[in-house]
Amino acid sequence: MEGAAEPGNLAGVRHIILVLSGKGGVGKSTVSTELALALRHAGKKVGILDVDLCGPSIPRMLGAQGRAVHQCDRGWAPVFLDREQSISLMSVGFLLEKPDEAVVWRGPKKNALIKQFVSDVAWGELDYLVVDTPPGTSDEHMAAIEALRPYQPLGALVVTTPQAVSVGDVRRELTFCRKTGLRVMGVVENMSGFTCPHCAECTSVFSRGGGEELAQLAGVPFLGECPELVPGSRPPVPSLPWAGLTSVPPVPEGEEGMGAVSSSLLGPHATLLRPVAPPPTPFSGPSWVAGPGLLGGPRVWRWKPSGSASVLSMATGGSGASS
Amino acid sequence: MEEVPHDCPGADSAQAGRGASCQGCPNQRLCASGAGATPDPAIEEIKEKMKTVKHKILVLSGKGGVGKSTFSAHLARGLAEDENTQIALLDIDICGPSIPKIMGLEGEQYVEDNLGVMSVGFLLSSPDDAVIWRGPKKNGMIKQFLRDVDWGEVDYLIVDTPPGTSDEHLSVVQYLAAAHIDGAVIITTPQEVSLQDVRKEINFCRKVKLPIIGVVENMSGFICPKCKKESQIFPPTTGGAELMCQDLEVPLLGRVPLDPLIGKNCDKGHSFFIDTPDSPATLAYRSIIQRIQEFCNLHQSKEENLISS
């Protein structure tokens, strides 16, 4: 496999980030979507490539179901969410005749489509391409990494939930990253806790501690915990009209939410995390930072400080990396 | 198993051995001769092996993380409470084998005398070992599980699957085709992001003519341990499993609420039924398990009537 990037449809993409997890249902697509929106909010042009062929969630999460993929002179045009073309998407979801149609393909056919997604989609000039993957360590992952390898992906964000059953699967994903030479930028722990809308008590519905344990095992930064959205704050996402930049869901301001991860990727002042005071009890006190969430409701995030330098400087071989 | 070319059209496709990507493949001659089109002899061998297995149930979901393994484990434990029933739990999630952990097994394969488990997890020497296999190799493993494991006299074989509609699912349906599967239990959570994948799974079942026992809606409602009021962590904004089941005409077997102790027990490998016998989730599981047993018994007596008539 050649090391240099061949001129191709990914030549104009500056950074490629994969979002992985050995475990299903931990929130890879949610994290991919939020990261892309946060990066866009920071003024970047972002693409999302959804290589989950059996369960493509990205179109629905961004209200883009039913959109069609058109041909252009360089191949397939990605689906744009807005006139400014600041977010573009590609997913098998756009290629299905009916939304409930099942993609019942064996590995080789899945590999072929993923290769096409990488080589034939005219991504154009992008600052970031976020690649959302299905759970596991199989055909889709190998195909995506092989196809993306000439373009030197920045690395992978690994998502887990706190429970040991999840960590048990995600450890294997970390081995996969090691074996395929994909740098793990950090671990995100999703669904860390749920705040009761009636009494504001926060419960760990999926146990505790998995994300940190995983990050320690792998010697990678623990990027933080994301609890559940406060219920009732998640209205159904309407399909976006073509003219709909204003209907793109609001994103966290500044350093909050996934903005913290995105700002860790951006610029010379990027720091991995905003330092927070240790909370007196979990999920309460000054360490909580509230901000508008993906779909307009309040989203509460808690980020732990890290001694390491920014994720970006780690990726480019800068100093201070703790791993 | 040898590596197949990346664009392999498939040994049983019309292009087998004839496609451009077949050049240089060691199996090219074999495929081109049409050998791939003949049924795999393993299917008959598995049919023989499965003669001692009374009921076979697949636990499926298009969506990951909805609780297939958790449900499979509880179904197995629930059925195994009758000491006269022999239960086998087969985990064909090759990349993410959760069953050994959920059942509290570290290599030994019997949870109780009448509850045995098989998983690729037992074959891995370290918890960090990753199974990085393409489809054909995974299919080979599943074939071995079905054909080469000495299942013995089993009343219920429960097969836990990974998320999706791909190699593992096609293989298990294909290899058990002659042995007859009672049906599939499909797991979902209430939100539309899950339902849209689960509808695909239901269509998959219909495509491969796999009977659907019913749908279980997991993580359906959460009772706050402090104020005891219910709220929805995964809101059913499009009607949840109930509406989907009505639309697609499949039975809704039941709803299991989200009890944080389920996750904790799975992490420790303990039985949720023993540790929290009075939880609403326990009651929900038991009711669903009973409905599954009724389906299997009804199906069995229909078959016996057919044979005797």
TrEMBL record, chain A:
Family: Belongs to the Mrp/NBP35 ATP-binding proteins family. NUBP2/CFD1 subfamily.
Positions of ATP binding: 22-29
Keyword Hydrolase among record annotations: no
Molecular function in Gene Ontology: 4 iron, 4 sulfur cluster binding; ATP binding; ATP-dependent FeS chaperone activity; metal ion binding
Subunit: Heterotetramer of 2 NUBP1 and 2 NUBP2 chains. Interacts with KIFC1. Interacts with NUBP1.
Pfam families found in the cross-reference section: ParA
Subcellular location: Cytoplasm, Cytoskeleton, Cilium axoneme; Cytoplasm, Cytoskeleton, Microtubule organizing center, Centrosome, Centriole; Nucleus; Cytoplasm, Cytoskeleton, Microtubule organizing center, Centrosome
UniProt entry keywords in alphabetical sequence: 4Fe-4S, ATP-binding, Cytoplasm, Cytoskeleton, Iron, Iron-sulfur, Metal-binding, Nucleotide-binding, Nucleus
CDD domains: Mrp_NBP35
Function: Component of the cytosolic iron-sulfur (Fe/S) protein assembly (CIA) machinery. Required for maturation of extramitochondrial Fe-S proteins. The NUBP1-NUBP2 heterotetramer forms a Fe-S scaffold complex, mediating the de novo assembly of an Fe-S cluster and its transfer to target apoproteins. Negatively regulates cilium formation and structure.
Keyword DNA repair: no
A Gene Ontology term for the protein's cellular component: centriole
Binding site for [4Fe-4S] cluster: 196, 199
GO biological process: one example: iron-sulfur cluster assembly
Cofactor(s) needed: [4Fe-4S] cluster
PANTHER family reported for this sequence: CYTOSOLIC FE-S CLUSTER ASSEMBLY FACTOR NUBP2, NUCLEOTIDE-BINDING PROTEIN NBP35 YEAST -RELATED
Cofactor note: Binds 4 [4Fe-4S] clusters per heterotetramer. Contains two stable clusters in the N-termini of NUBP1 and two labile, bridging clusters between subunits of the NUBP1-NUBP2 heterotetramer.
Transmembrane intervals: none
Record protein name field: Cytosolic Fe-S cluster assembly factor NUBP2
Organism of provenance: Pongo abelii (Sumatran orangutan)
First-listed, main subcellular location of the protein, grouped into a coarse class: cytoplasm
Automatic annotation (TrEMBL), chain B:
Residues spanning the membrane: none
Keywords attached to this entry: 4Fe-4S, ATP-binding, Cytoplasm, Iron, Iron-sulfur, Metal-binding, Nucleotide-binding
A GO molecular function held by the record: ATP binding
Oligomer status and interactors: Heterotetramer of 2 NUBP1 and 2 NUBP2 chains. Interacts with KIFC1.
Pfam families recorded: ParA
Organism domain of life: Eukaryota
UniProt xrefs under InterPro entries: AAA+_ATPase, Mrp-like_CS, Mrp/NBP35_ATP-bd, NUBP1/Nbp35, P-loop_NTPase, YlxH/NBP35
Family, as annotated: Belongs to the Mrp/NBP35 ATP-binding proteins family. NUBP1/NBP35 subfamily.
Binding locations of [4Fe-4S] cluster 2: 224, 227
Chief place where the protein resides: cytoplasm
GO cellular component: cytosol; nucleus
Domain AAA+ ATPase: 54-199
Keyword Transferase in record: no
Keyword Cytoplasm: yes
Function: Component of the cytosolic iron-sulfur (Fe/S) protein assembly (CIA) machinery. Required for maturation of extramitochondrial Fe-S proteins. The NUBP1-NUBP2 heterotetramer forms a Fe-S scaffold complex, mediating the de novo assembly of an Fe-S cluster and its transfer to target apoproteins. Implicated in the regulation of centrosome duplication. Negatively regulates cilium formation and structure.
Annotated GO biological process: iron-sulfur cluster assembly
Cofactor note: Binds 4 [4Fe-4S] clusters per heterotetramer. Contains two stable clusters in the N-termini of NUBP1 and two labile, bridging clusters between subunits of the NUBP1-NUBP2 heterotetramer.
Residues annotated for [4Fe-4S] cluster 1 binding in this entry: 8, 22, 25, 31
Secretion signal, residue range per the UniProt entry: none
Binding site for ATP: 62-69
Cofactor or coenzyme needed: [4Fe-4S] cluster
Name of protein: Cytosolic Fe-S cluster assembly factor NUBP1
Compartmental location: Cytoplasm; Nucleus
